[in-house]
Structures are given as structure tokens and as C-alpha cells.
């Protein structure tokens, strides 16, 4: 069986005509048979796609044919099955959302550190190591001794860092993230805040896990990835986690045995976060996915449209039932 190639890429560049790129880039991806999501903004490109070896090469060649994106780098891994349902090219204000206007990694950025030199850096006493990812990512794996900001989104990182700046007493800051893109912005932000010695892991955790042998590694646990593989380990081998497809957080097989877990609807981490109407929509969505699988179809295209219509209908039905229930309660 042919393995699927998964390519993660990003590149910061001034791209004022990014809207004009959307349609031809999507056409190139569809012609190459790739799936995934690519984001375009005035600051560059970011995303992950999957497909055959030739398909990935075609898309990368197209992206690099755009003058501003000619130096776009990518990282590869493999999957036994296609990890994405469809191909999307989206327009955004930022290719990674931090929400601080003026933060420009194409002008100022931290010092890149190759994976082979990362252990020596983060083992130094004068270096504070910061995991810039979200809390649910950090929970399943991080570098030994790293600080966890406990943020739910990357937008929260600047406020956390400003507070952290007041209390930390080490002159050097080393930051890391999954593939490197969040660190491009977080290190640029740290430099803007006045830190002079700011470092980040070149290629991110994924490059580290690919290049550094497990016996020499300071990484502990799995690395969360934003596709249906959920997590990877050293050598970029498939990790031990599944995912709750309601809240998108990673979960173990043991956690799936808890009473709060319903496939596609909720888990112990999000059980109290959704309304009954939302859970009804999730349940209908899961039903449509299972029906599509029984028909031997990928849940894309017309199935996706049917899923959305069914989910909306289920949510509306649940809403009306809720209203009716409140009316009956008032009558009583």
C-alpha cells in the first residue's frame, strides 16, 4: 500500500496580493489530488497537505513558483491513511493568529537553533525554556523543564508573556512549538519587548523528533499534530492518542471508557462545555459519518453538505424542543 505523504509548510513574506493566489492555488491542489488546509494572508502562507509523492511535489513546485514564496520550506511525515477530508485554501488576517498588530517575523525574529544543538541550549542554567503551544498540546508531551503558559489559544500568549517578563530572572529565552511557526511570532514579540537573547527550535518539535535519537532526547511524551494522526512520537511514528472530535482535544483509549465520552459528541474534557442543542448537532453529524462509512464513501462533497444540513436541522429541532419544554414549565 502506498504511504500518504504529509507536508507541513509555512513562510513569512510580504504578500499583498494573497487574495489573487487563492483560486489558482486551490486549483493546483485539486489537480494534484492533495487534501488539507492552506492559509494565505498578507504575511505569507501556512498549512498542512497530504497526498501522493508526486501530488505533494506538484503543489510545492506551484507554491515556490510564486516569487515571494520561493524559499518556502516544508517538513514531511507519512500516514497509512489520508488524514484530511477535503482540500481548503483560506484567506486570513494572520497565518498564525497572535493578535498583536505590527509583529513581523520577516523583519525581526529570534536566533534559530538546529535540533542537534537544542539539548545543549535548554540544559543551560541561564536559559528559560517556554512551550508556546496551547495547554491541551502540552499535556501530552513537552521538553523536560519547559514552562507551560497554560493558554487555551495563541492569542493569550502575549498577555501571559508580559506578566511572565515581570517575574523571570534569566537573561536568555528559548521557545519552541510544533513546526516552528508560532515561535516565529513569539520570538519576534519577545524581541519587540526588549529581550536581546531569544532563541527558537528550528523546524519545531517535529524536526527534533525526526533528527534526534530517542536515547539522546529531552522530549517527554507525544507531540500533538493537527490532523487525524492526533500525535506522533520519536521518528515521527504514530502516537498513542485518539481525539475527541467534538472539542478536538487528545484522549487516551482509557479515557474513552469514561461515561462522559460519546464518540463525536463529547469527552470528559468538554462534556460540560456544550449545550444540548450543540450535542444534538454533533450526534447527528456522527450519525451521518457512520452512514457514509457503511456506504463505502469518504465523508466529503455531497456527504459533507448533507452532514451540515442534518446538523443544522438537529440543532433547530433541539432548540424548538427546549423552547417547548420551557413553555410547558411556565404553564405548570
UniProtKB/TrEMBL annotation:
<dbReference type="InterPro" id="IPR040503">
    <property type="entry name" value="TRHO_N"/>
</dbReference>
<dbReference type="InterPro" id="IPR036873">
    <property type="entry name" value="Rhodanese-like_dom_sf"/>
</dbReference>
<keyword id="KW-0560">Oxidoreductase</keyword>
<comment type="function">
    <text>Catalyzes oxygen-dependent 5-hydroxyuridine (ho5U) modification at position 34 in tRNAs.</text>
</comment>
<dbReference type="Pfam" id="PF17773">
    <property type="entry name" value="UPF0176_N"/>
</dbReference>
<protein>
    <recommendedName>
        <fullName>tRNA uridine(34) hydroxylase</fullName>
        <ecNumber>1.14.-.-</ecNumber>
    </recommendedName>
</protein>
<feature type="region of interest" description="Disordered">
    <location>
        <begin position="293"/>
        <end position="332"/>
    </location>
</feature>
<dbReference type="InterPro" id="IPR020936">
    <property type="entry name" value="TrhO"/>
</dbReference>
<keyword id="KW-0819">tRNA processing</keyword>
<dbReference type="Pfam" id="PF00581">
    <property type="entry name" value="Rhodanese"/>
</dbReference>
<feature type="compositionally biased region" description="Basic and acidic residues">
    <location>
        <begin position="300"/>
        <end position="332"/>
    </location>
</feature>
<comment type="similarity">
    <text>Belongs to the TrhO family.</text>
</comment>
<feature type="domain" description="Rhodanese">
    <location>
        <begin position="123"/>
        <end position="217"/>
    </location>
</feature>
<dbReference type="InterPro" id="IPR001763">
    <property type="entry name" value="Rhodanese-like_dom"/>
</dbReference>
